[in-house]
Amino acid sequence: MKQVIVSGMRPTGRLHLGHYLGVIQNWVKLQDEYDCYFFAADWHALTTKYDKTEELKQNTLDVIIDWLACGLDPKKSVIYVQSLVPEIAELNIYLGMITPQNWVERDPTLKDMAKILKTKEGQGSQINYGLMGYPVLMSADIMMFNADYIPVGIDQVAHIEITRDIARRFNNLYGEEFFKESKPILNNCSLICGLDGNKMGKSFNNDIKISDTEEVTAKKIMTAITDRSRLRKDDPGHPDDCEVAFKYWSIFGDEQEIETVRCECEKGLRGCAQCKRQLAEKINEKFAPIRQRRKYYEEHIDEVHDIIKEGSAKARERAGEVLSKVRSLVRMY
Ligand code: TRP
Ligand code: SF4
């Protein structure tokens, strides 16, 4: 029996290269070695966006199309939508009963989310009950498949700690070592910065999307920060001070190319505009197959709906087994 991996993302829009390099690429590798469950966490999206649901469905589709394009394979992994697996909501109820209020109140990630929300207009100073339940619902996601490992970003580790505490408490209360204590596997989210040198993120308007066209990608790359001390294109440049463009080269170029860029830059033989045009070509080359697959799924959206339907049915089957065991351990009717 393979070990189990569970991970999800809130469907908040199309994914960017940071998601690909830091998260999805890793998921794609994991699916050969583990039983993987990957889902769009649409209930979690609702905890903060309950009043803006116009785009929820499309965002859910988009995130899953991005995954498929990047190489998540429905033959290897179970790919599903959280809200299509109602067993998770029932497990959430049992877990909510055994979770002391102060465990969720001291969750640092939740505190950060609450802080951000409070500064946003219209939210007042209240946070909703559903958001308080964020870590419990996340525990239900994870425990639903009795996961061994959870690939997540560092900001999610506090939630996994609560999950382990809840699992331990469940086992103690109901007299059997049924739930495993799931462990995080850390994503490397700092692999690539945004075009302005800050963290890549769609709200910062500094990202390149997996779904961007080659033209859009090239245009965006031309805005990337370079060595700021360089005024003319034949001035000697400093690749190590070229905060974005050279960093991208070191991610996407091969050894030979990186060396050539460095040499030519230092000798003033390479202008930044030309350098970034080449860089854009390099990135476009790398993402061509992914973008092609994305286009295929966009044009065959029924296949995507079927993948989601079948994935969610598979998830429900396994979830149903865990849930019957839970119901019997809790001694429900
Ligand atoms: N909270 C996670 C995030 O924002 C998404 C998520 C929800 C998740 N449930 C999960 C991740 C379960 C891993 C396992 O990134
Ligand atoms: Fe950066 Fe390239 Fe310009 Fe050198 S030539 S500063 S590596 S963009």
Explain this structure to me?
This protein has 333 residues and is mainly alpha-helical. It folds into 2 domains: 4-192 and 301-330, Rossmann fold; 212-293, Tyrosyl-Transfer RNA Synthetase. Helices cover 55% and strands 7% of the residues. It has 14 helices and 5 strands. It has helices at 17-30, 42-49, 56-70, 87-97, 101-105, 108-119, 129-132, 134-143, 157-174, 214-222, 245-252, 255-266, 272-299, 301-330; strands at residues 4-9, 35-40, 78-81, 149-152, 183-186. The strands form 2 sheets. It has a 3-stranded parallel beta sheet with strand order 1-2-3. Helix 4 (87-97) crosses helix 8 (134-143), helix 4 (87-97) runs parallel beside helix 14 and helix 10 runs antiparallel to helix 13 (272-299). The longest helix has 30 residues, at 301-330. The radius of gyration is 22 Å and the shape is elongated. The protein binds tryptophan and iron/sulfur cluster. Residues 6-10, 41, 44, 138, 141-142, 150, 152, 156 line the site of tryptophan (TRP). Tryptophan (TRP) binds next to strand 1, helix 8 and strand 4.
Main sheet record: 3 strands, parallel
CATH topology of the largest domain: Rossmann fold
Strand content: 5-15%
Quaternary organization: single chain
Elements, N to C (H/E): EHEHHEHHHHHEHEHHHHH
Ions, cofactors, ligands: which are bound? tryptophan, iron/sulfur cluster
Shape: elongated
| Termini Cα gap | 31 Å
